[in-house]
Amino acid sequence: MRIILLGPPGAGKGTQACRIEEKFHLPKISTGDILRRAVREGTPLGLKAESMMKDGLLVSDDIVVGLVEDAVGREECRRGYVLDGFPRTISQAESLTRIDGRRPERVIEILLGSEELARRLAHRRVCRTCGAIVGSEDSPPPGGDGGRCPVCGGALEVRSDDRPDVIRARLEIFDAQTAPLREYYRSRNAYHSLSGNGTPEEVFGRISVLVEGFLGGAAEERRS
Ligand code: AMP
């Protein structure tokens, strides 16, 4: 099963992709995570992507599509995957069809109002050592010492692209370039949306209903 998570920055895509990976055993492919790791490690890919990411702009398609092509081609992704942060444009969606050859079964948009998005982004932290994203529900209040990473104990810091002016740019890009994917996938009978309000468990409950709905239908088809 192939799942795409859509939603503006701060909607909780990364958190929910991890939960989907755990419960449904679908490998998570997060282009943002892959790019941030490359930047942390100072690889040639990281050096190419860094300035675009700092400004909240989209990294070029030839870089990002190549990353997804490598990931989707891995043996562990043969039975499906969950994509977080890709596609972000119609042209990336078309590249995904070319790469995979099959359409995603569920494109799930996590909807959240702008005030709640701003609140979550203001609290979000990233670990300087392992890159774990620490969400608002378990991060220290802003202005403190930044706290420690719950995964590796490393120092936490504000993501360089979670600063107010950069957030504004990222939200504009989402509206202009990513939101058209709703219609793109709606017309392919794959689009679903749900509320991102509430706890991560509550949001995951809504997502699970959609995923299990598909898996149940597929099992039924195999039996008949
Ligand atoms: P994310 O963690 O998904 O919010 O991504 C962080 C940043 O990585 C974005 O603001 C972009 O600069 C870059 N990025 C991640 N995914 C993509 C993508 N599909 N296309 C272009 N740039 C991306």
Describe the overall structure.
- It is a single chain.
- This protein has 224 residues and is of the alpha/beta class.
- It folds into two domains: 174 residues, P-loop containing nucleotide triphosphate hydrolases (Rossmann fold, 3-Layer(aba) Sandwich); 34 residues, no CATH class.
- Helix content is 50%, strand content 13%.
- The protein contains nine helices and eight strands.
- Strands 2-3-1-4-8 form a five-stranded parallel beta sheet, sandwiched between helices. The protein has a three-stranded antiparallel beta sheet with strand order 6-5-7, with no helix packed on it.
- Strand 5 and strand 6 form a beta hairpin.
- Helix 4 packs parallel to helix 5.
- It is globular, with a radius of gyration of 17 Å.
- The two termini are 19 Å apart.
- About 2% of the residues have low confidence.
- The structure holds adenosine monophosphate.
- The site of adenosine monophosphate has 17 residues, from helix 2 and helix 3.
- The site of adenosine monophosphate (AMP) has 17 residues, from helix 2 and helix 3.
Write the layout of secondary structure elements.
Layout: E1 2-6, H1 13-24, E2 28-30, H2 31-41, H3 44-54, H4 61-72, E3 81-84, H5 90-100, E4 106-111, H6 114-123, E5 125-127, E6 133-134, E7 156-157, H7 164-178, H8 181-186, E8 191-195, H9 200-223
Parallel strand pairs: 1-3, 1-4, 2-3, 4-8
Antiparallel strand pairs: 5-6, 5-7
Helix pairs in contact: 1-9, 2-3, 4-5
The structure holds adenosine monophosphate.
